[in-house]
Amino acid sequence: MVAGPQARLRHSGISFTRRVVPPELTTTRQGIRISSPSLTALDLVPASPGYSIDDVLRTRTATIAGMYFALGLTTWRKGNTTRRRLLLDSRSEPWSPRERLAHRLLRGAGITRWRANVPIVCNGNLFFQDIAMDDCPLVIEIDGRQHLDPAAADYDRWRGNLLLLAGKQVLRFTAERLDDPEGFIDMIRRALVVCGAQAATRGRRSRIAR
């Protein structure tokens, strides 16, 4: 969205909407005033239910706090109820629609003590774990549609191997598997039991060694 002085704008195939944008929500790039990423993401919510929020979080061009700030400065807009609901739904900071769904399923099942997109360095490589459990080395990876690409699939396997060597235990789910919420949650619960038992065993061995 371009921000500028009021003018009568016409262009074939393009519709223009005039409104006042708080100066705190504009930025200047190459001499052109545009809306901030936080406001732009919120503006796009009606056309993309949450996807625009996912995009700015993934690219780290905006934050949840920044979007709440933008929402607070534009309280008069139609659709703010939906924007507020999606910001609440984004509190764990998903980076894709499928991650958003996975977060919602975990919260609905009462599975807590996890964080999203947690950085980890493996063999000199920086990765972001889609969902990492706090109390055990379980990592949940959500494969997007790109996993069908051979190069992407090869990268995912290499990345998974390095995570394993770093002591992580990885569960992978395709986007389609999330369409079976009960199966998704059941497998995670079973993995938590296994990982918890293994963590306890390592703890006992460590105490014996001392």
- Quote the beta fraction: 15-25%
- What is the gyration radius calculated from CA atoms? 21 Å
Query: SS-based structural class?
Result: alpha+beta
Sheet having the most strands: 4 strands, mixed
Gross geometry: elongated
Round the mean pLDDT to the nearest integer and report it. 86
Oligomer: single chain
Element order: H for helix, E for strand: EEHHHHHEEEHEH
The number of helical segments is 7
SSE map:
Layout: E1 26-29, E2 32-35, H1 37-43, H2 51-58, H3 64-73, H4 80-89, H5 97-108, E3 114-122, E4 125-133, E5 138-143, H6 150-165, E6 169-174, H7 181-209
Parallel strand pairs: 5-6
Antiparallel strand pairs: 1-2, 3-4, 4-5
Helix pairs in contact: 1-2, 1-3, 3-4
Compact description:
This protein is an alpha+beta fold and 210 residues long.
Q: How would you portray this structure in words?
A:
- With 210 residues, the chain is an alpha+beta fold.
- It contains seven helices and six strands; from the N terminus they run ββαααααβββαβα.
Descriptive labels:
alpha+beta, two-stranded antiparallel ribbon, 7 helices, disordered C terminus
